[in-house]
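Course assignment 3, question 2. Fill in each field.
Student: A.L.
Task: Predict the tertiary structure for the chain below.
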Amino acid sequence: MRFIFTFLSIGFLFCGCKEAEAEADVVAVKMPAKVMYEEDPNYDMAVDSVATEAVQNAPAMSTSSEEKMEQKIIKSGDLRFETSDMEETYGAVNQLIKKHKAIVQSDTEDKDSYTFSRYLTLRIPNEHFDNFINDLGKGVDYFDRKNISIEDVTEEYIDVASRIKTKKALETRYLELLNKANKVSEMLEIERELATIREEIEAKEGRLKYIQNKVAMSTINIEFYKAMERKAGARVSFGTKFVNAIKSGFNGISTFFLWVIEVWPFIIILVALIYFIRKRFKKKSNNQNVDTN
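Answer field:
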């Protein structure tokens, strides 16, 4: 029985992408007559029949369906520009957000010594993406950065949707096998296969929903900023320079005294060492003078 399900799993693994591949897998799934009758001829014949039928009847998207399917496009934009009035610009962007039914996913402000910036991340319906970019550009002299990317995920969408249909058809056939099973070991084996198939279906459905969400709602990152006045040295008055110099000198003296306090033990040792060295040389010099006299 385990041998049969191993071959079934191998056969069904390759039947999700295209109809031609599914038809090829039908041959791989069929069991030799000798294996079918090893345990229970009637039951194994039913297994082979239902499994083969599951592959044959598994929904597969035809070429005509792929051609008729609307393209699945994921759009995203990254914009950066300078403004002279942050509040006015935010008000204009906010009006465009309402006009094009966008959603503010994040809104962040940042300020440093040179610029005051605001970052917006928007989710906007795909059909409004181009119009939003065009309307925003009307109020901007030039963009420091303007990156528009388009990703065609039609092929992946079709592939995932086809695999989900195939897995669901396989799940249905395994449920039929479960109803026909008479042995506990057979039931447990089928339930394990069903659990694996269900996990695969949920994973594929999650991926399909992610693609659908990205296609339906595009992402736009907007950064606009205002340059702050830089404090140049030529613009600082003499009085300010004088006060700054006094403060700098005072800070220098304070730093020096703090350093002296920190290293005072070494200073005492050094002074004592110099004192004894000078005293010794002085004593030796006096002795030499006495000997000379």
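Instructor remarks: The chain is about 65% helix and 15% strand. The radius of gyration is 41 Å.
Grade: pending
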